[in-house]
Every structure is written in C-alpha cells, then in structure tokens.
C-alpha cells in the first residue's frame, strides 16, 4: 500500500505498546522489528514499482534482465538464474515467458547440456535494462530516504540476520598469491 496522508501515530509503536500491555513484553521488540521490516518493504516496493511500471517492468523482470546483463554473454541457464535470484524455478519460467513474449529475452538450447535451457538477453532487453536501471538509480537508489551511514548499518544488520537464517554462507577466503 502506497503512503497516503500520514497517520497521526505510528501503528507499529502502538502494536508494541499493546503487546507489552497484554503480557507479551518478551516478544514485543521482535514483533515491532518484523512489522517494521515488512512495512518498510511495502514502502520501498511502492517506490520501485512506481518507477518501473511506466517502463512495463516489475522488479522481478528487472532483476532477471540485470542478472543477464552482468554475464559475459548475456545468457544463463534458467536453473542458474533461479538459484542466483533465490526464487522458485516456476517463478523464473513465468518471468522468462513474459520477457520472451515482449522480445527482451529468448530461450536457446544449452550447447553442452541437452537438459538445460539458456535464457538470453536480446538487444531490446539490454536497452530496456540500461534505461530502467538509470531511472531507478536516479529516482530511488541515489535518494533512498535514509542517510548513507545508516543504510550501510541497516544493510549489515540485515545481512547478519540473513546469514544466521541460512540465506547464504560467507565465501571461503582466497589463498594469498605466491
């Protein structure tokens, strides 16, 4: 839900107060943190959606196009895209279907693995992802509404939470060159 007129109070702070009043003080801070992250997600997603919608993109479509643009050849096996974007293979299939219909990607047989399908970025797809990234950077990411130092702290806190939840592991350290 996009923000309208500001509420006269913070509903999450009120929910925390109610949690404490009802005897759940040990859970009140956790409830407030989870609720705050979910509301922040809604607010952030609304900003991103408002920028991408006029370009005919969703964030999921942009993520796949951007991932493909980062590869050497503009191509990835669909299964690799699913893993890297941390979404179910069915979701990748749906995104690829829409992007392919619009001419921004195409499917190709994998040259060495007969079971795999590559998703390949097209010229129009590359142009769209560059435009979308430029607009998203200018209108959202360069001015996120949180000071840079706090953004870095927030990102670090959330990364630690994600790591502890099993979202990722730290890469093995690279050996020192001889």
What do these coordinates show?
With 178 residues, this protein is mainly alpha-helical. Among the domains are: 10-55; 58-134, Winged helix-like DNA-binding domain superfamily/Winged helix DNA-binding domain (Arc Repressor Mutant, subunit A, Orthogonal Bundle). The chain has helices spanning 11-21, 25-52, 59-70, 78-85, 89-101, 123-141, 148-164, and strands spanning 75-77, 105-109, 117-121. It has a three-stranded antiparallel sheet. Strand 2 and strand 3 (117-121) form a beta hairpin. The relative contact order is 0.09.
Write the layout of secondary structure elements.
Elements: H1 11-21, H2 25-52, H3 59-70, E1 75-77, H4 78-85, H5 89-101, E2 105-109, E3 117-121, H6 123-141, H7 148-164
Antiparallel strand pairs: 1-3, 2-3
Helix pairs in contact: 1-2, 2-6, 3-6, 4-5
Cα-to-Cα separation, first versus last residue: 55 Å
* Number of DSSP helical runs: 7
CATH fold type of the domain at 58-134? Arc Repressor Mutant, subunit A
Shape: globular
| Main sheet record | 3 strands, antiparallel
| CATH hierarchy class name of the domain at 58-134 | Mainly Alpha
Give the uncertain stretches in residue-range form: none
Using only CA atoms, what is the Rg? 21 Å
The second-level CATH architecture of the domain at 58-134 is Orthogonal Bundle
Helix content: 55-70%
- Looking across the biggest beta sheet, what order are the strands in? 1-3-2
- Average residue pLDDT: 94
Task: Work out the number of β strands.
Answer: 3
Kindly report the oligomeric state of this protein: single chain
In N-to-C order, the SSE pattern is HHHEHHEEHH
What's the CATH H-level superfamily name of the domain at 58-134?
Winged helix-like DNA-binding domain superfamily/Winged helix DNA-binding domain
- β-strand percent reads 5-15%
Query: Which structural category do the helix and sheet elements fall into?
Result: mainly alpha
């Amino acid at each position: 839900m996009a923000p309208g007129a500001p509420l006269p109070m913070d509903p999450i702070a009120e929910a925390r107060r109610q949690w404490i009043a009802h005897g759940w003080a040990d859970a009140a801070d956790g409830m407030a943190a989870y609720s705050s992250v979910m509301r922040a997600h809604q607010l952030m997603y609304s900003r991103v959606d408002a920028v991408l919608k006029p370009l005919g993109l969703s964030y999921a479509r942009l993520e796949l196009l951007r991932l493909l643009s980062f590869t050497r050849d503009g191509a990835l096996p669909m299964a690799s895209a699913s893993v890297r974007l941390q979404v179910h293979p069915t979701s990748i299939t749906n995104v690829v279907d829409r992007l392919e219909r619009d001419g921004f990607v195409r499917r190709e047989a994998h040259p060495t693995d007969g079971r795999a399908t590559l998703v390949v970025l097209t010229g129009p797809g590359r142009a769209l992802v560059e435009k979308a990234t430029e607009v998203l950077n200018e209108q959202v990411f360069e001015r996120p509404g949180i000071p840079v130092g706090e953004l870095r702290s927030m990102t670090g806190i959330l990364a630690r939470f994600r790591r502890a939840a099993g979202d990722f592991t730290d890469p093995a350290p690279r050996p020192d060159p001889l």
